[in-house]
Amino acid sequence: xxxxxxxxxxxxxxxxxxxxxxxxxxxxxxxxxxxxxxxxxxxxxxxxxxxxxxxxxxxxxxxxxxxxxxxxxxxxxxxxxxxxxxxxxxxxxxxxxxxxxxxxxxxxxxxxxxxxxxxxxxxxxxxxxxxxxxxxxxxxxxxxxxxxxxxxxxxxxxxxxxxxxxxx
Length: 168
Ligand SMILES: [Zn+2]
Known about the structure:
Helix 3 crosses helix 5. The radius of gyration is 15 Å and the shape is globular. The chain has five helices and seven strands. The relative contact order is 0.22. The protein is of the alpha+beta class. The strands form two sheets. It has a five-stranded antiparallel beta sheet with strand order 2-3-4-6-5. The model has no long low-confidence stretch (mean pLDDT 95). It has one domain: 2-Layer Sandwich (HIT family, subunit A), CATH 3.30.428.10. The structure holds zinc ion (ZN). Zinc ion (ZN) is lined by residues 23, 25-26, 66, 119.
């Protein structure tokens, strides 16, 4: 079972693993902040498992190019990223059987922070409880889940298999 840790402990671990990169998403894409659990990747985009999550099974899709506003993203790149988020949501539905999936392009409005990035990205978050609300899902106040290495490997494997099945 994934373990729940406090927000403070998560922030401490993130800083220990990756310091304070100028851009967290660029650092993830460049593998400068530890393991990246990749579902699919190409030259322009990355779909992976964030390592600190409010709900187990959370997936993230992002363009690799450093973009922090929609004005900087051409329609093709954003459409491709959104398509990947949609594909990821279908894979999450198939593998995790959540009650619902949230899709959201969030990120920091306060500059680059330890746990959130200005670099555009799309969250795909499975919900398992009937009373889950956006305020629960997009805040770390209630702690975050982390997996053991074998749990991350197993989840990555199940998602990759489902992806290949759904999107051959
Ligand atoms: Zn970036």
